[in-house]
């Protein structure tokens, strides 16, 4: 039997811990904007490309409809986005930023630069990390998990 792994040495634990640390780090930054982290991501996606279908937004942010729909309803209730059904296809819903949504999204769009400065990491090292995590995510999504050991 091999040595029992220390969670601190596992990639999955390090990613989990970093994700939680990021969530805690972002919370006080997003609170003045009245946003949660997932709402922030939606606004960033829409400020880049406004007027997108719910499906396209979900695909980019890797959120399923059951998660994205209530999130969009909350953003709509906050007056930040509008949702409209397309007349040519009633099943298709397009999401767009309102004027207030654009104002908040513009402020939110400045956050990544602020975070990079706060982290005081070499920009090239940071980009390498982002690229590596992107490749890891893609590989994980394309790989069938192994069976649980007996």
Automatic annotation (TrEMBL):
SMART domains listed in its UniProt record: HTH_MARR (SM00347)
GO molecular function, one term: DNA-binding transcription factor activity
The organism's place on the tree of life at top rank: Bacteria
Residue intervals passing through the bilayer: none
Gene Ontology cellular-component terms listed: cytoplasm
Protein name: MarR family transcriptional regulator
Domain named HTH marR-type: residues: 8-138
Main localization, broad class: cytoplasm
InterPro entries: ArsR-like_HTH, HTH_MarR-typ, MarR/SlyA-like, Transc_reg_Sar_Rot_HTH, WH-like_DNA-bd_sf, WH_DNA-bd_sf
Assigned keywords, A-Z: Cytoplasm, DNA-binding, Transcription, Transcription regulation
Pfam families: Staph_reg_Sar_Rot
Source organism (scientific name): Halovulum dunhuangense
GO biological process, one term: response to stress
């Amino acid at each position: 039997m091999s040595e029992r792994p220390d969670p601190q040495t596992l990639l999955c634990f390090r990613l989990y811990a970093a994700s939680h640390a990021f969530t805690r780090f972002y919370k006080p930054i997003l609170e003045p904007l009245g946003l949660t982290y997932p709402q922030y991501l939606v606004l960033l996606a829409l400020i880049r490309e406004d007027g997108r279908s719910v499906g396209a937004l979900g695909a980019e942010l890797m959120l399923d409809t059951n998660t994205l729909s209530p999130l969009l309803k909350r953003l709509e209730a906050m007056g930040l986005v509008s949702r409209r059904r397309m007349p040519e296809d009633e099943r298709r819903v397009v999401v767009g930023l309102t004027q207030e949504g654009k104002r908040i999204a513009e402020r939110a769009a400045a956050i990544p630069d602020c975070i990079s400065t706060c982290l005081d990491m070499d920009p090239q090292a940071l980009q390498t990390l982002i690229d590596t995590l992107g490749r890891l995510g893609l590989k994980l999504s394309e790989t069938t998990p192994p069976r649980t050991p007996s």
